[in-house]
Write a structure and sequence with these properties.
eight-stranded parallel β-sheet; 38% helix; 15% strand; globular
């Protein structure tokens, strides 16, 4: 596979492991991916619950947790380690500042447009900034704003299509509309971002995610102009994924019809595996008593059917009856738990054999 260059960072394998909260991608998974030549990403979402002993500690424990996860990852690998920080989180600024202070190689930021992200970068900081967007319009708007306000150009842009796991930057009716498919979005975004890059004498690599499952998928999306891929779902069923084995097993047991689109309390649609918890939510049987963490800017406890932080934390711990697993549209294809090394080498072999096939056809 081709290398992925983001400024002076060079990933020998063009695969970014998407940040997965709560707790699904911590130092264990991120360092394993980085050691195999990809970019490993620690999710900053919910670290305050994982590391805190009581809700009042949430803010401080989030900072401590991110420092600790970055330290563990650094001890385990010399590869590239990033941090995912969602704009929708109320501790966005804390997580960004900590990631930069702890010299994370790169910050990936989505679930809203991270318009202020460059303002956190002190002079001489080496952390790269990569926004996650869902449309060419958002990509261009963000490039312009960053340049106008901060004279900063994104180091890379991730485009996340509607087949991704977790929160989706689309309206429900757009999710199955081919106008919004990753294959449609990538050439549009690459064209717009290249134009912006040419005007500002720089190159911004585009990384595509959402539904990429095989080496052939990687090859095809890179032929459309992506320089790398972001993959989440495939990394869940690895030995090194930081979730409880029951979370991983829920992917293996899933059938296609078990994957559903939910309205999350964040105010965005999300893709998740059906669970008895979600059934109870649908039947209106759930109501949070209080908002323990104040974790999401847009979440209103008086209207939310449940506390998403607790639901995702329970799932991470394997208590799926009290929560649910986010997943990508292809999660039902998972067949086994394997090591990150096995996964990366099978993706690479599939990529190579498909590339050979295409070359053979062209001859
Ligand atoms: C369990 C799970 C949790 C996720 N959590 C986050 C998150 O906290 N922040 C984020 O930006 N994206 C999140 N995502 C999206 C992934 O980072 C990735 O972009 C996406 O899943 C790619 O699609 P794929 O799963 O089909 O490979 C999550 C995805 C999954 C499956």
């Amino acid at each position: 596979m081709k290398t992925l260059k983001i400024g002076n960072l060079c990933a020998s394998v063009p695969i970014v492991q998407g940040g997965m909260g709560v707790g699904i991608s911590l130092a264990g998974l991120a360092s394993a991916v980085a050691s195999e030549g990809g970019i490993g990403v620690i999710s900053s979402a919910g670290l305050g619950v994982i590391y805190g002993s009581r809700p009042a500690d949430y803010r401080e424990a989030s900072i401590r947790g991110l420092k600790e996860e970055l330290r563990k990852a650094r001890e385990a690998t010399r590869g590239i380690i990033g941090v995912n920080v969602m704009v929708a989180m109320s501790n966005f600024a804390d997580m960004v500042r900590t990631a930069i202070a702890e010299k994370a190689d790169i910050i990936f930021s989505g679930a809203g447009l991270p318009l202020s992200l460059p303002s956190f970068l002190p002079e001489g900081a080496r952390t790269k900034l990569a926004p996650i967007v869902s449309s060419a319009r958002a990509a261009v708007l963000l490039c312009r704003k960053w340049f106008e306000e901060y004279r900063y150009v994104p180091d890379a842009i991730v485009v996340e299509g509607p087949k991704a796991g977790g929160h989706l930057g689309y309206k429900r009716e757009q999710i199955d509309d081919s106008h919004y498919s990753l294959e449609t979005l990538v050439p549009e975004i690459v064209a717009e971002v290249s134009k912006f890059g040419a005007e500002h004498e720089c190159h911004i690599p585009v990384i595509a995610g959402g539904g990429i499952y095989t080496g052939e998928d990687i090859y095809r999306i890179m032929e459309l102009g992506a320089e790398g891929v972001q993959m989440g779902t495939r990394f869940v069923t690895t030995d090194e994924c930081d979730a409880d084995p029951a979370f991983k097993q829920s992917y293996i047991d899933a059938r296609r019809e078990d994957i559903e689109i939910i309205e999350s309390p964040v105010g965005m649609p999300g893709r998740a595996l059906r669970s008895s918890f979600l059934d109870r939510v649908r039947e209106g049987l759930k109501r949070p008593k209080a908002c323990p963490f104040d974790c999401i800017k847009t979440c209103d406890v008086t209207h939310s059917p449940y506390c998403i932080m607790l639901a995702l934390y329970n799932a991470f711990k394997g208590k799926l009856q009290n929560g649910y697993a986010f997943c990508g549209a292809n999660a039902w294809r998972a067949e086994k738990i394997q090591s990150v090394r096995e996964l990366m080498s099978s993706l690479s072999a599939e990529y190579d054999s498909f590339a050979q096939k295409i070359k053979g056809l062209a001859r």
